[in-house]
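Could you help me review a protein record that somebody else here produced? My question to you is simply how this chain folds and whether the tokens agree. Thanks in advance; the entry in question is below:
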Amino acid sequence: MDSIDLEVLKTCAQWIDAGRRCELITVIKTWGSSPRPEGATLAICDDGRVVGSVSGGCIEDDLIDRVRKHGITRTRPEIVTYGITADEAHRFGLPCGGTIQLAIEPLSASSGIADMLERLGRHQLVARRLDLQSGAVSLSEARPGMNLQVSETTLTTIHGPRWRLLIIGAGQLSRFLAQIALGMDYHVTVCDPREEYREGWQVEGVEVVHEMPDDLVVSMRLDTRSAVVALTHDPKLDDLALMEALKSDAFYVGAIGSRSNNEKRRERLKEFDLTDEQIARLHGPIGLYIGSKTPSEIAISILAEMTAVKNGVTLPDEVRVAHAKSAMKVGNSEDVCGVRTAE
């Protein structure tokens, strides 16, 4: 889940603890275009305070206005639909014909919010089942690939830990990669046992650790919401960490380096207890071919490829670095403008 929806849950827990009445609003279905996807959440307190978002703002305004005029009076969940008519679509900022359906749930100590936050803190993927008739809630461990489901009697929402990115190496490229990844809502960790690289390296909001990368990969228990990017160019640091990452459930594992160096890396990885299928998961040369030369451009290239994999987009060979450079007969040099390129 992204930090917006996590903030919604944390705020709901605070309001409940403070004895305030509040409601959790979840987007359960959309038709046509909509500003927020299914599963997006908004919380509203009895004093009109809100956190989160379910639209571009107009629907929020209507929900707040109703609470301020009438208070929170619901005692059980209710399904509400906005934007059925063209007039409503215009009023609420939706395209003509756009429709958004919301589940509005009054919360209490029995709503399981605190329990769910505790599970999320342990990096569990959680299925929350809401009985739409009684408001009763049950939590269970979700299976990977499960999505929001709604029927006449039950709403099941899936809540997972934030997406995580482990960057191996605290260099200049790592700084740009970490900064952009933070803006994309990743929880970012940078690992580098070399003191000379860590000294002075700081990006607010990023955890920097000094243990050996392969040990950290194991201890992080990488899941399907985790990515690993190796940027040191040092096989002693990169290879063992990549070996452990390729055996994990991480959705993306990539390493910087030229085409020839990545072929040599794959040969070295064959000496470990990895299958051909596991080695084939390695992205390298890393990133998409966008002609990137500077560290900031290379970071964008890496995150573009990572985002495509995260979103299940199959990329054509033409945009992959190795294929594109071979087709263009581009040389295999790594050093451009004093930095090592991803391509």
